[in-house]
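Quick one, T. Sequence first:
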Amino acid sequence: MLNEVIKELFVVLLIALVPTFFFLHFQTEETFVSFIKSLLPNIYFLGYAFLVFLLAIIPKFIKYFVYSSLGSFNVAIVFLCDVFDRASETLVGLLRGTVGVFIFILIVQLKSNQEPIELTSTFLIASVIAGFINIITIRGITICLNTKLNRKIN
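Structure tokens:
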């Protein structure tokens, strides 16, 4: 479990922290602000990505609990599982990018302020922790469903 958290931390840093650092130091302030806004997802799209993640569970349960002697049905279910798995990774990617931006903003804010922690810093710390919990939970659910509910269809 700790290994997964460490891996996710490095993925978050790679996805969002490195380009954000580049934009802060080598681009104009307007470009930097535009870049930060582009990394933060729209709340409706984030909700849609979460819905797709939940919908990805349905074909896995059908695959596990419903056996069909029809080969075409089994092929279709396997296809749907694969498509929904790939689509549900969008949610994890969005969360990784958002958490990375929050970490970067927190680092910049803590370096620039005289006071160690303000209300916004506390909010950012809570958001980073909640984001990591969500990423690990969603990845855990996905891994669990892929291993526990993965029944061979012959």
